[in-house]
What does this fold into?
Amino acid sequence: MVKKVQMAAGTFADGSPHLFYFPDGHKFAGLFKGMNVILEERGFRDQTRDLKWECPGFRCPPGRTDCCVRRTLYSQPDFQGVTFLLEEHCGKCGFDVLFLPKFHPELNFVEQCRGRAKWSYCQLPASSGEEDLEMNALKSLDLVPLPLMRRFSNRLLRFMDAYRKGLNGEQAAWAGKKYHSHRLLPPSWRKDLEAKL
Ligand SMILES: [Zn+2]
It folds into this structure.
C-alpha cells in the first residue's frame, strides 16, 4: 500500500514553524500550499510575482537565488539545510544515507552488484513458488563474488577520479578501460587522452 508522507514543516526567519499544508478549517485543508503561497507567506509577493515557475530543467544560472520561483524557495535557509525523512529514519536505525548523482549507474556500487545478482538469478531453476523465489533472490546476492565486487569498487573509483579531473562521460569510460589495473588515473592520463583525441 502506498502511504503518502507529508513534508515536515519549514521554519520562518524568526524560528517559528511554517506549515506547508493548509490547516483544518481552510477550504483546502490538508492540501499542499504550493510554492507561491509559501513564498508569499514569507513576504516574497513582490519579488516573485513576475518570475517564471522554474528555469528550464531547473538548471539555473550558477550562483543565482532569484531567477525563478522554485530556486527562490529552494534557496531559503530551511530548504537548504533540510534533512530528508529517509535520512532521519535511517539515522534512527544507525545508518548513514549516501545520495548518489542521478542517472549515473557507473558510480553506484550496489547497482553493479545487483546487475550481477540478476544475472545469477536467471541461471537458477525457474519456479512460481514465492518461497523459492525469495530463496533464489537471496542466493543470487550471495553469489556475487568478492573479487568482482572489488573490481566494481575500483572501477567506480576510476570513474570518480576521471570526473574530478574534468573528463566527460565518454572520456571517463575510456579512462576506466585503459587504466583497468589502476584505482586512480595515472599521471600520464592527460597525454594519453590528447593522443586519443
Ligand atoms: Zn532558476
Summary: The mean pLDDT is 91.
